[in-house]
Amino acid sequence: MLLLARRAVHLEAVAERVRASAKVEVRAEVCDMARTDLPSALQAMTADLDVGVAVYNAAHAPVGDLVNRPIDDLLRVVDVNVRGPLVFARTLAPKMVARGRGGIVLMSSLAGYQGAPRIATYAASKAFNIVLGEGLWHELRTHGVDVVVSSAGAIRTPGYAKAATKDAPGTLDADVVAETTLDALGSGPVVVPGSVNRLARFVLGRILPRRTAIDIFARSTKDLS
Prior knowledge:
This protein has helices spanning about 10-20, 40-45, 70-100, 120-140, 160-165, 175-185, 195-205, 210-220; strands at about 1-5, 25-30, 55, 100-110, 145-150, 155, 170-175, 190. The protein is an alpha/beta fold. It has one domain: NAD(P)-binding Rossmann-like Domain (Rossmann fold). Helix 1 (about 10-20) links the parallel strand 1 and strand 2 (about 25-30). The two termini are about 35 Å apart. The relative contact order is 0.12.
């Protein structure tokens, strides 16, 4: 197993937990998914591996009105959330296609289905992931490669705990999201973990006018910090 993350301390802690619980060999590589040489770096780190399932879970999510955020912070969203998964899929998919099997998971968000005030750039990047994953699902399925996009709602992570004062409706533990997402490989292109979140996606996307959906989402992001 190969784990990639930007912060070495947290990366190694996760690697040790996986080694202890799953009894598998784990390689941990420090890697900022915004790095300019990401294509060649990923190629080098996976050259000796036959990656069976690849999960892109990196994200940058600055909170606040767009006009008040530094431009470099907003461009990092593009590097990590848009360029990153595109390079990730393009680097790993060819070997899977040649082998005739494999799986790619892209983590998106319910925020990607409509405008999301105060996390506007993040939401836009997650819309990109949904559409990218849907296209890849159709392109790769005839080659034996499964693709699924996980459009998750709020997840109880350390980052979410810092940003939110309380759980949003439909908030799930990370292990529930991971299990639901991996179970959906083979029946993509999109999975929405949690019944509350599936209902929210249906109501906001199919029933309510677009302006109303944006207003509702704004109420869920107004207290993020």
